[in-house]
Amino acid sequence: MADTPLAIVGAGVVGLALAARLAKRFPELVLLERRERHGSETSSRNSEVIHAGMYYPAGTLKARLCVRGRQQLYELCERAGIPHRRIGKLIVAMRGDERPELERLLALGKRNGVELELLEAAACHELEPAVPAVAGLYSPSTGIVSAHALMDALLREARDHGAILQPRAELAGIEHRDRDYRLELRTPDGTETLTSERVVNAAGLEADRVAALAGIDVDAAGYRIHWWKGSYFAVGGAKARVLSRLVYPVPEHVSLGVHAVLGLEGRLRFGPDAEHLPDRQIDYAVAETKRDAFARAVATLVPGITAEDLSPDIAGIRPKLQGPGDGFRDWVIAEESARGLPGLVNLVGIDSPGLTSCLAIAEEVEKLLV
């Protein structure tokens, strides 16, 4: 008999959501985390936005699970007392030639079931006087959430149903046997083994490496992850109160563009940018040399904010399937019986809107586990 019915690799917000949902069905599941604390990588280094779902092609996992997950996340926040605000978002066209992109997002959002309103310049100015937009797309269902409070709540729920979190346990090997998987773990005490009937790979930045450990050719499968670093700059002083909601430009090729992020405490930041990290080395430093580029992007949205108002803040790294020059890539959520690995579910390339969708992703994975 295996040590556990289910091992989840990675205790970011998605892994925690999986554990919270699946512990009811698989008592004593084990949640493996290589860091000392849960949620200390991508899940804690982002904009903490509850996305509405207007950006993603209709019918994709990102579109469907974002819309479903948003509803579930607001319900959980209300039920569990997780700090959040349904603050709203304004996507703005700063030039006339950007208006067709707003109209495209409006049509796409409606197909995805998102509440949106196209606003003219005067209405945009009424909402955000500091933003000289020529048109805007208003999303009333976009919000912000405390990612740490969310993750702590999910961990409590998982533990209440018998889940076991094992931190400082890095996966070093996976062997599929007749009826289970043998996992080799590196821990502070040396090498340990764990046997599990099923495995869910929610390893975030290293999800492709974990899939490869199971014997999958990640390039042939299309599972190769690209790391994209996103830096943020904060605004201090009185100008930190110049906006009352999230303000985004029309989206860029690999990101949503440098946008205005309001924290629950009222703090104003701008970011993230998109810097490809081909060597896949963890680097959370925010380079002072980026200030001028950020200032130009910020001044486009809010002309009253200058380089002198900006100071380096946090950075995060996103695990994208989309490499430089690539088009849209959807998430991978795949049960791998077809590759001779029954009971293994891979979650690969879970970038934005992964936080928003975490509860819906867990619901989707549960359907795949037999």
Could you characterize what this model shows?
The chain is an alpha+beta fold and 370 residues long. It has two domains: 7-47 and 148-224 and 327-368, FAD/NAD(P)-binding domain (3-Layer(bba) Sandwich), CATH 3.50.50.60; 88-140 and 225-320, D-Amino Acid Oxidase, subunit A, domain 2 (D-Amino Acid Oxidase, Chain A, domain 2). It is built from nine helices and 21 strands. The strands form five sheets. Strands 9-2-1-13-21-20 form a six-stranded mixed β-sheet, sandwiched between helices. Strands 14, 16, 17, 18 and 19 form a five-stranded antiparallel β-sheet that branches. The longest helix is centred in the N-terminal third of the chain and has 20 residues, at 61-80. The chain is elongated and about 65 Å long. The two termini are 17 Å apart. The model has no long low-confidence stretch (mean pLDDT 96).
Short description:
By secondary structure, the chain is of the alpha+beta class.
List the helices and strands and how they pair.
Layout: E1 7-9, H1 13-22, E2 30-32, E3 49-50, H2 61-80, E4 84-85, E5 89-93, H3 99-112, E6 117-120, H4 121-127, E7 135-139, E8 143-145, H5 147-160, E9 164-166, E10 170-176, E11 181-187, E12 190-196, E13 199-201, H6 207-213, H7 218-221, E14 226-235, E15 246-249, E16 259-262, E17 268-271, E18 275-276, H8 291-301, E19 310-320, E20 332-335, E21 344-348, H9 354-368
